[in-house]
């Protein structure tokens, strides 16, 4: 049995929130709170129950309106359940199918953080009618390749000793150069000057590394929605902010969500100290894993993002490949038209950038 509900159904939304937070497959992107960040998307929750009324699985589905009254569904890092259980997965997919019918969805995107070697999961998705798209870089919605640092049963000294010698040196160097880190938690009022500083650092980073950045209002919504689960870290030198990050701490796990730095004073290595402070906070909060998020799937030294890979690798996490982006087409012809138009728009945008 499944149930579909809106955020106005406070009781079921709270049940989904608690289930996602406590489940081993839980992810902050599957929380109802994350839907508050995505201003241009609607949200629905789906719960799957057993015969006794116990919750077996959950999906948070974002709904993006499209022209002509159509929409698309996206369940980032979902579903949350035993993904090797075809009964639960099937029940959740039936719920999503009913939701798709009610909102005239063309297709559904799902990109779970499921290990790539899980062939049984992949076979189950194929049997359910999904197609898979892999990416060697950042072509999918969520990164398919990440570094993850295990924290369970380990202390600060052991983890720090496991970093590469260069990483340890750069963390210490930042301290010797006078870099300090301040932390601002989302369940408190984050000073406007701190938000402004981070937003400006993101703009500098975006221009330097040639990617589109979110505006300050978006970052503000993250802290408002996730509350104490979102933390802004700012690195200062001589009283000036020179680098910053946003970390998410949710359900016993931690993620490095955003990072930015100035073009000046980079020799003081503030990014290394920021990561260390984020990891230390994860340890204090009892997190089992710290996720550095995206790295390129191609790691040759001539790759333009090799520096990012090398930076994260220095913290000695596990290099993890997830399964790809799965797509289910509810309306095959219209989906094909939509995906073709999307490719054309992306191609033109790439040519113009």
Task: Summarize the structure in words.
The strands form two sheets. A seven-stranded mixed beta sheet has the order 1-2-3-4-5-14-6. Strands 8-9-10-11-12-7-13 form a seven-stranded mixed beta sheet. The protein is α+β, with helices and mostly antiparallel strands. It starts with a strand and ends with a helix. The chain is globular and about 60 Å long. The chain is built from eleven helices and 14 strands. It has helices at residues 10-22, 32-35, 86-102, 119-127, 156-162, 165-176, 192-209, 216-226, 270-284, 306-313, 332-352; strands at residues 2-5, 42-49, 55-65, 71-75, 105-110, 131-133, 145-150, 180-185, 230-237, 240-250, 253-261, 289-294, 318-321, 325-329. Helix 6 (165-176) crosses helix 9. Helices cover 38% and strands 26% of the residues.
